[in-house]
Amino acid sequence: MDNQIVFLDKSNEVATIYINRSEKRNALSYEMWLKISELVEQCRVDPDIKVVIFRGVDRTAFSAGADISEFKTLRYSAEGADKYNRATLEAEKAIKQLTKPTIAMVQGYCVGGGCEISIACDFRFSDTNGRFGITPAKLGLVYNLPGTKNLMDLVGPAKTKDILYTGRLLEADEALSIGLIDRVYGPDDIEDKTYEYAYMICRNAQFAVRGSKVVINKALEGEVEDTDEIADLVLDSFETDDYKEGVKSFLEKRKPNFQYS
Questions:
Q1: Mean pLDDT for the chain?
Q2: pLDDT per position as a tens digit, 220-235
Q3: I want to staple 35 with a disulfide (CB 3.0 to 4.6 A). Which of 6, 28, 52, 192 is the partner?
Q4: Average pLDDT over residues 194-201
Q5: Cα(150)–Cα(16) distance, rounded to whole angstroms?
Q6: Which CATH number fits domain 6-202: 3.90.226.10, 3.10.20.30, 2.60.40.60, 3.10.129.10?
Q7: Are 206 and 261 in contact (CB under 8 A)?
Q8: Is the pLDDT confidence value at 143 over 70?
Q9: The whole model's pTM is what?
Q10: Nearest-CA neighbor of 181 among 242, 133, 240, 112?
Q11: CATH assignment of 206-251?
């Protein structure tokens, strides 16, 4: 996969989307954003995939942000910038709306577009070398509303202003303390811990896991009462083979063996 700047690897029930441009700290180009959307869709339709992990190809970086060379080409005009921005928004939307759980495994720099990808994921696990920031203020740019809302949902308005107004980089401990990331591990432990967590999710009833993600996203969008969609989702869960296995295993005092959905 050395010649692919973004690629997918599947092991058992976990898919990993690698950002593979370590010579540029995994800087993201327009074509890479399109590829990310394509691979997320591939994960969506693959029934064998239960969890998706995003990561850099090595410890160099998760992603240090945008490919600066495109500021002189594609992003030099408003028209080109709009084309680029639509690609980033579609990729982030695809990640956020993917019904399967997503984890950003961060090693090193996670800045700009890289940070946006991580924020679109359900979880962000970092090693102690993680560095986080969103830096449009240093380029004279205004950050988009969907990305700003995603950030605010994690850290609140004041911390969002701090991050966007200053453009500063946060070390892993500070990022953890404000809720920007969820866990911090040593550089030698993060890979094992991240995949261990992913497989823990895989062992649970997937209808319940994915249904929970739908409900949480609806709440984040402002819903405060069950919609027809959510009510149907709740009732449908009682009709699944997963539910029957869950009840049976509970009564038999054993671990469930979910394998139906």
A1: 92
A2: 888 888 888 889 889 8
A3: 6
A4: 98
A5: 22
A6: 3.90.226.10
A7: yes
A8: yes
A9: 0.92
A10: 133
A11: 1.10.12
pLDDT at 29 over 60: yes
- Banded pLDDT at 71 (limits 50, 70, 90): low
Is the pLDDT assigned to residue 258 strictly greater than 90?
no
**DSSP characters over the chain:** -TT-SEEEEEETTEEEEEE--GGGTTPBPHHHHHHHHHHHHHHHH-TT--EEEEEESSTTEEE--B-GGGGGTGGGSHHHHHHHHHHHHHHHHHHHH-SS-EEEEE-SEEETHHHHHHHHSSEEEEETT-EEE--GGGTT----HHHHHHHHHHHHHHHHHHHHHH-PPEEHHHHHHTTS-SEEE-TTTHHHHHHHHHHHHHTS-HHHHHHHHHHHHHHHTT--S--HHHHHHHHHHTTSHHHHHHHHHHHTTS-------
Q: What is the bridge-based pairing of β-strands 102-106 and 123-127?
A: parallel
| Tokens describing residue 224 | 């405060």
Judged against a pLDDT cut of 80, whether residue 81 lies above it is answered with no
Q: Taking phi first (over 0 means left), then psi (-120 to 50 degrees means alpha), and beta for anything else, what does residue 216 get?
A: alpha
Cα 88 to the center of its chain, rounded Å: 13
Q: Which one is predicted more confidently, 74 or 212? A: 212
Q: Domain residue spans in the chain?
A: 6-202, 206-251
CA distances from 165 to 29, 92, 157, 162, 229 (A): 24, 22, 12, 5, 39
Half-sphere exposure of 113 (CA within 13 A, CB side): 24
Q: Are 40 and 6 in contact (CB under 8 A)?
A: no
